[in-house]
């Protein structure tokens, strides 16, 4: 247990409020992008606020429980984000224009698209170049914080407490894989909290992996470009596997392929921690927001994902689901491989 100093608590609350309100104001720039087939009611908004406050309370409780150090509460690269802000703002009209035209696949002409599955070749969230350029990788982290009102890293680190508990069961270094590691924000937080482990990250975008290499330089992390539907690792290679914000971007068949690969590469008794959008079975109160997100943000697999429970997918693979925990707009599913 490590008690949080009152000053740290106040600084944290001030940071989150400042972030939230500046991003709420900036969200007005997104309006032309959104159709909002269904307008959220006051009740919907109350549910959202309740889950947001729960997330912040949980974040502080995790520090007090020793799941990660207080340092993680203040690790956003604010100066870097401020530098990227003008470029992100300049992106908004481009994204809005792409959305208006329904141009779902405007990808860089110099990329060999044949290297990627069909579902990957699109501008998720209407972002320029999809996942296929260095510029997209550079703007992604700030873009996601913008989209989620400054909670993206807070949500990501909710995968850490199950990993800390697992580490304490049998002390010693563990082999940890993060699937769809993107630009490395989850691995960054893991290496700060649990530097004793050996980490591997895999992602299909070479540009995002290059960005992760910069962020994670000097840490105990290997990064690999590959498709999570056929992981380039032998059976039982990892003691723990995590994945954040991947499954909602996959079609049904690919979700199952990825889960089967996670199961294959997880050691007996190993830990699986998945975080992704909340689903209708666990968060019916978010239905309006979730459905609007799926319709507005060029997320063609999202509406199907909402009804394809992640815990069900884990069980289909013979994993034992231990917990499902809310994390604002997301949820964390914790499962174990049989011994
Ligand atoms: C929404 S982003 C999440 C990235 C990161 N986990 C995060 O928290 O920001 C989805 C990521 O999944 C990756 N991805 C999509 N399909 C993939 C696949 N079949 N294999 C590996 N990575 C994939 C994309 O390149 C992208 O980095």
Description:
This protein has 339 residues and is of the alpha/beta class. The chain has 2 domains: 78-147, no CATH class; 152-336, Rossmann fold (3-Layer(aba) Sandwich). The chain is built from 12 helices and 7 strands. Strands 3-2-1-4-5-7-6 form a 7-stranded mixed sheet, with helices on both faces. The longest helix is centred in the first third of the chain and has 24 residues, at 78-101. The protein is globular and about 55 Å long. The two termini are 30 Å apart. The mean pLDDT is 93. Bound molecules: S-adenosylmethionine. The site of S-adenosylmethionine has 20 residues, from helix 7. S-adenosylmethionine binds next to helix 7.
Defining key terms:
7 strands; single chain; 7-stranded mixed β-sheet; alpha/beta; 2 domains; 12 helices; 339 residues; binds S-adenosylmethionine
